[in-house]
Amino acid sequence: MATIQEVARDAGVSTATVSRVFSAPELVLEATRKKVIEAVARLGYEPNFAAKSLRTLRTEKILVTVPDISNPFFSQVIRGVEEAAMAAGYSVLLGDTRHEEAREEQYAAMFRRKEADGLIFLGHRLPDTLAEIVAAKGPRTPIVNGCEFRPGLAVSSAHIDNEGAAAEVMEHLYGLGHTRVGVVTGPLVSPISSDRLAGVLAAAQRHGRASALRIAIGDFSIESGVRRTGELLDEPGRPTAVFCFSDEMAMGALEAIRQRGLRCPQDVSLVGFDDIRFAQYLNPQLTTVSQPMEQIGHEVVRLLLDILADRAGALQNVTLPHRLVVRSSTAPPPGPG
Amino acid sequence: MATIQEVARDAGVSTATVSRVFSAPELVLEATRKKVIEAVARLGYEPNFAAKSLRTLRTEKILVTVPDISNPFFSQVIRGVEEAAMAAGYSVLLGDTRHEEAREEQYAAMFRRKEADGLIFLGHRLPDTLAEIVAAKGPRTPIVNGCEFRPGLAVSSAHIDNEGAAAEVMEHLYGLGHTRVGVVTGPLVSPISSDRLAGVLAAAQRHGRASALRIAIGDFSIESGVRRTGELLDEPGRPTAVFCFSDEMAMGALEAIRQRGLRCPQDVSLVGFDDIRFAQYLNPQLTTVSQPMEQIGHEVVRLLLDILADRAGALQNVTLPHRLVVRSSTAPPPGPG
DNA sequence: CGCTCCAATGTAATCGAAATCATCGATAAC
DNA sequence: GTTATCGATGATTTCGATTACATTGGAGCG
């Protein structure tokens, strides 16, 4: 409640001195500092944030937009972001865009109003108004992309090698002897899906199995996992393995498999993507691609802080390591019996 | 980038008129308004947030602290909070406290610096410094508690009837014929656990089964579900049903059951709590208590906005409806064979 | 015709802290 | 002994918007 003026009066010094006690204590005599500290304690003074922000033109906040906060993959990334931001003295403004452009635009406006020093977006879309700013200001615009990588956006980013990871999954399945593989992707407008699909196709072609691929387009939700996997299983020439582009869809796939009286992995092998905390506790334990979610969070914050501190040079698109975690949801295909 | 002064000059009006165009357009002549709007578009003006906030002493932000954002229960609540806040023109400052008091205190300081107009905390602890403010300012302090209810805190809150819900679970189990029931709680310092435990004990006593209860204290994590349930199952006089105070711990319990070669529900029935999105896709589908997570989020925001708008009278502790969802993880106990 | 009233707009104070520039006293240098 | 230097602190401007109050010009009225 108290202002810096009241503290100054109470301590018998000027406001400048009070300010210095906080921002440059080495310039203030020990005795004076003590007087000020006492006055601060006496009055319960806390510097007003808006005033400080107006003067310094900095907010010490990072705006983070995410397509769906209730998705455990994203909430783990957010956790990493929050941790790294806090450690650097920044706090996190959260925007759940629910995949809606209107909400993305609302948050873009917040950025333009300077309610945050920087923006981290975890989806694949950057609102046009922000893309214009990026085009005008170049790589020093404090906007960073996490989880996805779309070269055209011209912003720094941190993500895994989605194409390579998906190819590894296919190698694993082909290695087990599978030939007919079903794939449940996410929406193909996002690089995260199209890159993985590219990896799938490349591996399939290497093995001469491209024509035996069955592709279904999901939306990363459990329900779409149930539905799309069900459709794949009901086609003639049922796949002996299904690769879902998220663990949540794989959970749905398990349900579809069970609904049809099939067993995983004996009848159908299943692979997910992300390695959310629950993947290893499913029945059967899920084979999946482990993404370093918290590390992605840390990394995007680091990239952003570099830009804010003017330490950043060119764009950086950081590829973090992933890992194929083979558990018990994958096995050789059933014999011809 | 442009300031209100530049817009005013460009449009040939005063800054007051520009400001009015945004905050009270009905006071401005249509022609004047048009000139201003054009200048705004020309210069790409966006009102500076810090300046506005300093003048109005309002931030239009709500600080939300949560013990663990990566917990799907909390992230669903957060989702409701975000939605309701956005609808009312507020944005969400997220604080992941990781159950650490030090982080809670950091966020408390943010509140005191007025970086947010109000605080919603989803844990069970309110830092002392804030408790003092509540004690001094009374029920008009813009602080609201979600999910938990601790009468001594003297803040408004929204939550379910945890005691009643837990009692219903026990009635369900006793109704199926179970007599030896194991319970895995959360930390008993939080009302969310102690209230549920009170409900469990009350129901057990009604049925004369209190002495057959086995209580283990977990921490809501999957791992603690594995460990504590494992311990219960290894005791002599193994329980025929286990009630975990969270779905995550129930997932761990399923794992513990499987590890011992037991089947759920044939050998051991299992009940969770929360009804997170994954509960109905586990194998077997989990019987659990459904909490209205998004609604809790909406409600705490409503309570907070009432306080901020000076609409609030006395404290409100809102109990929202829960529902016992019986799925296939509960069945009658195995016969004496 | 002169006065009141009101709609439309302008002037300027204000919010609270940061930062630049000015001041003052004391010490050091010549 | 005078002046340059420096450390410590104070006075004042500034950040950019909001808003209370002042001003202006015209319509309405007697």
Comma- or semicolon-separated keywords:
four-stranded parallel β-sheet, homodimer, DNA-binding, 434 Repressor (Amino-terminal Domain), Rossmann fold, six-stranded parallel β-sheet, 3 domains, 12 helices, 337 residues
CATH level 4 superfamily of the largest domain in chain A: Response regulator
Q: Report the oligomer.
A: homodimer
Shape label of chain A: elongated
Derived structural class of chain A = alpha/beta
Most extensive interface, residues per chain? Answer: A-B, 48 and 48 residues
The largest pleated sheet of chain A is described as: 6 strands, parallel
Q: How many domains make up the 3D coordinates of chain A?
A: 3
Could you give the distance between the termini of chain A?
79 Å
Strand order of the largest sheet of chain A: 2-1-3-4-5-11
In percent, how much strand structure appears in the residues of chain A? 15-25%
**Average pLDDT over all residues of chain A:** 95
Query: Residue ranges of chain A: pLDDT <50 for 5 or more in a row?
Result: none
Number of strands of chain A: 12
- Can you write the helix and strand succession of chain A as a string? HHHHEHEHEHEEHEHEHEHEEHEE
